[in-house]
Write a structure and sequence with these properties.
With 909 residues, the chain is of the alpha+beta class. The protein contains 33 helices and 15 strands.
Length: 909
């Protein structure tokens, strides 16, 4: 028996020893994944001292080539295949606190050190981060279930099964109606559409509802509101003065682009480089205002070049955060500490934007001038005549000059001042015996000067001189002294080549040495107007002049410098714009897809690179953003950062599947992408939280139920306008001024004040509200709106008492409550219970529960008792209307106000 027992124990011990050996062998032989196992250790424990910012000891872990290079000791810290002789491992395990790494921080765990050893033993291979790998076809999960409605559900269900969960049942029809209406058009569906859906019992009723909402003109308003944060859209320029900017036509372009389902690749191309497309339309120019939403500093005494560069850098950073879902701003000063982007690559990318015409001018040049129908017809006829009597290039030049006054020399670029200066750092002014220089002007074939100026004092004489202040006089001229901005044209002596041009000014009337007599805005050296001697020359030249000098509104747009005004780009040492390093040319980071072979090295080429199907980020970023709008959280939660420091996707394969389908099958159709998402069973789930979901999926990252999130700032306001019957459904147009308290908006420097719009304007949708960066609309900021000084890729939802104070007390919301009460009384019948029940149905599409009705009736009766005793409070609650001012009406307003503040209304369930 003892022998048998001994043999059994020997067998057990042998098996256990074999298992240990097998486990050890399998563990050690398993290939270490750099991205998931090594990169997190480096980023959290090493990179702050050994990366893009700091390279202590000459050791950097940013790129493999740097990590394997010799350090300051003359030897590499990592020797692939030899962890025992790798200095990095020695420094991790040594006991001496002055040598052990991380220096003056807790040591790495045994498990982390073991991973690093094995990684080096296996060759210290680097890996490409998932977001920087081109999108490839994804195999659909092999799951079958009657719950599945489309491919999205396969990925979701597969993940749910991994966690032993089942999806939630489909939401109630009325809940779905409200949810999908808010998600697709941003407001509740109108009564007719809601009634049609609720009465339709066919299987495709929901699908028909979705298609109707996608076709609604209000679809574009909802999705444009999302994009305005990315575009940092505002009606003002920002900084201290924060003066008005006339750029609302860009907002309207967005609305129409979303409504017509402009393919996303075209949508981006027009915003990045619409002006560089062949024969660009006005709409394509307006689209480029995407990157003219940058701030302009109008404060006197600022350096215009500094703030021009600031705007250019903002365009770089916005392009990466908004369109590529990647942080890039830090690369301005040093190589990215976490992702594979070098310091020099920032400036190569910046070179795409650095050659644009805008220069921090007060007038926001360049601007696209907008003509009425009559003027546009004249321009069309003139264009046809020019095309017949000039080369295509010159015809295009003269048309562009009429429409934009560009390319011109902005007077704020002048220098070498004598008795002259940049007034308020904006306009070139001259005192008596004054002179100033315009550098490196291409004078080849130039025979006239067209300029915009103001004259103040009679007796002044201006001279245009060649190369120096007392050089050859090309022309002597004057301007009138009406103090009005006017455009002038003078013939000048023709000279060849590139020259410095000096402007001199003499005026014996100017006795005060500090008084100026004239100031310039812009100057354009031009060739002769084409077609001289041809039929219609005089008439068409007159039309040209009338259009050029017409006073019309304009929108800031993007335009590139012509070749003779090219601006070079240099690396800024440590990000300091005053310390310029090597000159660089436009290019994209080496870690991503290369520029397409046929792409020009300008913004149009950049757009081609962005929208290439080889670009790993563009489609992923947009799919992630749309998903966040519908489900409350992105598949990768950090919309602004899909890099190694961002939160990894919960369903990476689903993200890649949708991104690939978006580019290929859907051909960049955003409406098709949205339709696919909202028709999924995943989207249609009930949002109720079951106990097992609270335990296993508390944040709904597995999408085990429907989204339940607070409405956006715009939706909170717009829903109230719809429910109260006040919404003005007009599409587009200039921004409006709804009610806000006095004193919120103060502009001491120019005395501007908020002037509330008329009733129609006050009841426009939220995205039409005039947006002043230094004093944004308070109620929307309370609900997490963005100031839009910079790109905001993601709004972080908050829940504060201030939000309730807004919806309960803000005069705009009180106005909605009063009209909602009137609507309840008009449509609900004679009984108060019927009126309240009708109001609840109007607000939620649902029948009110007896318990809820009872609570609201208690509120009504208590309010009624108080109002019967106090006429002043009654009239205050009813407001300045000519209607019913009875205590009963006031009590109903209280109920309407409370109903509009129900969690059920402020939240998308």
């Amino acid at each position: 028996m003892k022998i048998m027992r001994s043999k059994k124990w020997l067998l057990v011990i042998s098996l256990l020893a074999g298992a240990v050996v097998l486990f050890t062998f399998s563990t050690n032989s398993h290939t270490i994944d750099f991205n998931t196992q090594i990169k997190p250790i480096i980023n959290s424990k090493c990179i702050s001292c050994h990366g893009g910012v700091k390279r202590q000891g000459g050791f950097s872990l940013l790129f493999r080539s740097e990590a394997l290079a010799n350090t300051e000791s003359g030897k590499p810290a990592i020797i692939p295949g030899d962890p025992a002789n790798s200095e990095m491992i020695r420094r991790l395990i040594i006991n001496d606190p002055e040598e052990r790494m991380p220096y003056k921080h807790p040591p790495l765990s045994d498990e982390e050190i073991s991973l690093l050893r094995r990684w080096i033993k296996q060759g210290a291979q680097w890996g490409d981060h998932w977001a920087y790998v081109p999108i490839k076809p994804v195999k659909l999960p092999d799951v079958k279930d009657k719950w599945i409605r489309n491919d999205i559900d396969r990925f979701i269900l597969d993940k749910l099964k991994e966690h032993d969960l089942r999806p939630s049942p489909e939401a109630d029809k009325r809940v779905l109606l409200r949810r999908v209406s808010l998600d697709l058009i941003g407001i509740p569906a109108d009564t007719a559409l809601a009634k049609t859906f609720l009465n339709d019992n066919n299987d495709n009723a929901y699908e028909k509802l979705v298609d109707s909402l996608l076709a609604s003109k209000h679809f574009g308003e909802k999705w444009a509101a999302m994009w305005l944060d990315l575009a940092r859209y505002a009606d003002t320029k920002g900084y201290e003065r924060d003066d008005n900017r006339n750029i609302w036509r860009y907002r309207d372009w967005l609305i129409h682009a979303f409504n017509e389902d402009k393919p996303y690749d075209q949508f981006l191309t027009e915003q990045i480089a619409g002006d560089l497309l062949p024969n660009p339309t006005d709409a394509q120019y307006i689209a480029t205002a995407f990157h003219r939403n940058t701030m302009t500093n109008d404060e006197g005494g600022t350096d215009n070049e500094e703030f021009r560069i600031s705007a250019v850098m903002d365009r770089v950073n916005t392009t990466w955060e908004a369109l590529l879902g990647t942080t890039f701003a830090c690369v301005q000063c040093h190589s990215h500490p976490y992702d594979p982007f070098t310091h020099e690559e920032y400036y190569k990318f910046m070179a795409f934007f650095n050659d644009t015409r805008d220069e921090d001018t007060y007038e926001d040049y360049p601007q696209l001038r907008h003509f009425n129908d009559s003027m546009q017809n004249q321009l069309n006829a003139l264009t046809v005549w020019l095309q017949k009597n000039a080369t295509a290039e010159k015809a295009a030049h003269w048309k562009r000059f009429i429409k934009t006054w560009e390319p011109s020399i902005h007077s704020l670029t002048a220098d070498d001042f004598v008795n002259s200066e940049l007034q308020d750092t904006k306009w070139l002014i001259f005192r008596n015996h004054g002179s100033a220089r315009l550098q490196k002007v291409n004078m080849q074939d130039k025979v006239q000067l067209i300029f915009r100026a103001q004259g103040f004092k009679k007796g002044g004489q201006l001279k245009l001189r060649l190369d120096k202040a007392d050089g050859l006089v090309l022309q002597t001229f004057t301007v009138d002294t009406s103090r009005s901005w006017k455009i002038y044209a003078i013939d000048i002596q023709s000279v060849s080549g590139v020259h410095d041009i000096y402007i001199t000014y003499d005026n014996p009337v100017l006795i005060d040495p500090n008084e100026s007599g004239v100031r310039f805005d812009w100057l354009h050296f031009a060739e002769a107007f084409p077609g001289k001697g041809q039929p219609g020359y005089a008439e068409h030249k007159k039309v040209f002049w009338n259009l050029l000098t017409a006073r019309v509104s304009a929108t800031p747009v993007m335009m590139d410098n012509p070749p003779d005004m090219h601006r070079s780009t240099h690396v800024f040492e440590r990000g300091n714009w005053l310390v310029k390093g090597k000159e660089v040319s436009p290019d994209v980071p080496h870690a991503l897809n290369p520029m397409p072979a046929n792409a020009p090295k300008n913004r149009l080429g950049l757009a081609m690179w962005l929208t290439s199907k080889n670009n790993p980020l563009t489609a992923r970023t947009m799919v992630n953003r749309v998903w966040e709008q519908l489900f409350g959280m992105g598949l990768s939660e950090t919309l602004e950062d899909m890099g190694t420091q961002g939160i990894p996707p919960t369903h990476r394969e689903l993200l890649d599947h949708l991104a690939g389908k978006y580019m290929n099958d859907m051909k960049w159709s955003t409406k098709k992408l949205i339709r696919e998402m909202v028709l999924s069973a995943t989207y249609r789930q009930d949002s109720k939280l079951r106990p097992e979901l609270l335990e296993k999926d508390p944040d709904n990252k597995l999408y085990s139920r429907g989204a339940r999130v607070r409405l956006s700032a715009e939706q909170v306001r717009d829903q109230g306008l719809v429910i109260s019957g006040l919404l003005n459904r007009q599409l587009g147009g200039p921004s409006v001024f709804p009610w806000q308290p006095d004193g919120v908006w103060m502009s001491p420097w120019n005395g501007q004040s908020w002037k509330t719009s008329d009733e129609a304007g006050r009841h426009r949708r939220a995205l039409y509200t005039y947006w002043k960066r230094t004093a944004p609309y308070p109620s929307m900021m309370t609900f997490d709106g963005a100031a839009r000084e910079v790109c905001t890729p993601r709004r972080i939802r908050t829940n504060t008492p201030l939000q309730a104070l807004v919806t309960l007390n803000d005069e705009a919301f009180m106005d909605m409550a009063r009209h909602f009460a009137l609507r309840m009384k008009k449509e609900g019948g004679e009984q108060v219970q019927q009126q309240i029940s009708k109001g609840y149905e109007l607000a939620t599409y649902k029948t009110i529960a007896p318990a809820t009705l009872n609570e609201l009736m208690i509120l009504y009766n208590e309010a009624l008792r108080k109002f019967k005793k106090d006429n002043v409070k009654t009239w205050s609650m009813v407001g300045p209307t000519d209607g019913d001012k009875s205590p009963e009406m006031a009590a109903l307003v209280v109920v309407a106000n409370a109903m509009m503040n129900l969690d059920e209304l402020i939240t998308k369930n």
